[in-house]
Amino acid sequence: MTNPDAPTAGADSSGKVLLIKAKGGLGNRMLSAVTGLIYADLAGRRPVIDWRDGVYAPRGENAYPLLFQSPDMPDPALFDDRTDGVTPAIWAGRLDEFPVTMVDGDHSGPLVYRKSCVDLSRLDHDAALAVFWSYVSKLPRLRGHMARDPRFRGRSARDIMADYLTRYFSPNPRVEAAVAAALGPLARPVIGAHLRYTDMAGPLEAVKQSLAALRTQMPEAPIFLATDSARAQDDIRATFGDVHITEKYLPKDGRHLHGAQADGIDPVLEAENAMIDMWALARCDHLVYSKNSTFSGTSAIIGGLSGDRLVNVDRFNPKIVIKRFLQDYL
Fold first, then answer.
1. What keywords are annotated for this sequence in UniProt (predicted)?
2. Half-sphere exposure of 50 (CA within 13 A, CB side)
3. Per DSSP, what are the bridge partners of residue 46?
4. Secondary structure of 212-251 in HEC code, one letter for each residue
């Protein structure tokens, strides 16, 4: 929902707009949007977040203002009919479409997004409307621009991302109340654990081993578990006591949560449940996670979790280390 007390988004003295589209899950689209928001500020464009792709709200309805107390932004539908002054030109007359259709079925490879994303190497595009999207954060590609801008110079990427997440992604009141209700009764410290175990199966045994090690140090610490898998949830709750969860829909056949609408599940409600998990993890004292997941990585940034408060179960996995490097810089 729009926060009436929030400032108008972005610097738009030029009258130019950056339409920020999305692809993927909640963490992916939040960190991707942060890149777009920073690019908009660097380029003097007004940002407009467009989450009408049907993943977290009925198709055609913008999920962003439903889920977050967002700064004032125009309705992205206002730009749908624009046919000129658009970059990349592939979007002209197609601004009601989404990245998933633009990639023509080719969802692999770190460079797929570049054909339909504004050229991030330049800030001086003449087009009145530019379109940004990426599957993950592309902040390292803006490093040169940020080094020349006093608003960003000398600040760490993590600090900048945390700042933009706070400004543009404050949860709606239902989510805030649910997070407080979930964590409020729990004794401190609380161990958070996240495991994606459906379409991208995470290391369940490594998560359990890390939880066991933390429980050895803090035997009375409750665990807050966030997972997309009924099987993983049942396994961890059978292994450890005092495990707390957000009650949410988990497909029994192992499908990922983005397919919940096929089962008649309200996509906005399930998006809010995912946000409850994300912000609850952010407010835990320790977090067991995989850096292969942008979901829990976003939680860590929101919560300011670092150092020995984080246990990355994939920190020695060379495939994931290389994958993340390529995604950041390409």
1. Plasmid
2. 27
3. 17
4. HHHHHHCCCCCEEEEECCHHHHHHHHHHCCCEECCCCCCC
Q: What are 124's two structure tokens?
A: 């001086």
Instruction: Using CB atoms within 10 Å of the CB of residue 37, give its burial: 0 to 12 exposed, 13 to 18 middle, 19+ buried.
Output: buried
Instruction: Work out the number of other CB atoms within 10 angstroms of the CB of residue 255.
Output: 15
Domains of the chain: 17-168 (3.40.50), 173-329 (3.40.50.11350)
Distance CA 68, CA 52 (A): 14
In this structure, are residues 50 and 22 in contact, taking their beta carbons and an 8 Å threshold?
yes
What predicted TM-score, i.e. pTM, was given to this entire model? Answer: 0.89
> Reduced to 3 states, what is the DSSP secondary structure of residue 183?
helix
**How far is residue 288's CA from residue 240's CA, in Å, rounded to a whole number?**
14
Q: How confident is the prediction along the chain (330 residues), in pLDDT tens digits per residue?
A: 544 334 345 444 458 999 999 998 999 999 999 999 999 999 999 999 999 999 999 999 999 999 999 889 999 999 999 999 999 999 999 999 999 888 765 555 556 788 899 999 999 999 999 999 998 899 999 999 999 999 999 999 999 999 999 999 999 999 999 999 999 999 999 999 999 887 666 789 999 999 999 999 999 999 999 999 999 999 999 999 999 999 988 876 555 555 545 567 889 999 999 999 999 999 999 999 998 889 999 999 999 999 999 999 987 666 766 666 656 666
Total count of residues recorded for the chain: 330
Q: How many helices and strands (H and E) does the chain possess?
A: 11, 9
- Residue 129 CB neighbours (<10 A): 21
Q: Are 49 and 70 in contact, with CB atoms under 8 Å apart?
A: yes
Show the DSSP H helices in the chain as ranges: 26-43, 64-67, 99-102, 143-147, 157-168, 173-183, 204-217, 230-239, 267-282, 294-303, 318-329
